[in-house]
Amino acid sequence: MNRVMLFGGLMLVAASASAQGVFSFDGIPIEGEPTVEVNMGPEMLTLLNGAAGTVPGVPGPGALDGITNVRVLVYEDLREKMQDVAKFVESTGTKLEGDGWSAVVRVRDGDEQVRVYMKPGTGGLLSGITVMVMDFGGDGGAGEAVFLNVAGAIHPAQLAQIASTIGMNGAFRGVPGVH
Q1: Against a cut of 0.90, is the pTM above it?
Q2: How many domains does the chain have?
């Protein structure tokens, strides 16, 4: 799950934003509150952007320019709910694709599944990135799900810059606009 969380974090940091790429994840079939919940709008993201680059290895100022919305939900201990979550992820993917999003990454690695969707914007930019991660908890694990959405004017070239900063060179080869 660490690799999956790193990938999700990469997508979060790599973005810069537009409300048309917002996806709320309404209808997640899980009772109770997420163990981690991040909801940031333009004001908070502007403050964070000012602090960017003050931590070694984190991209510098401007990495978050234009972000309007970031939402992250993490659910843990989902033993009995994982099949319902898997159905939700499947139907959400279908909904996203029907709304003009493209499925750009699908990872099936043992008990882990990752889906990354990107919504084209204008002028060679993306307007949203949505990531859904499921860890079915093989080998006695409890099952986890992570949902992430970043909305805005996202520069694809930033994905490669951030990936190289954290040691994921080549992770986005084949994504249009990424060098």
Answers
A1: no
A2: 1
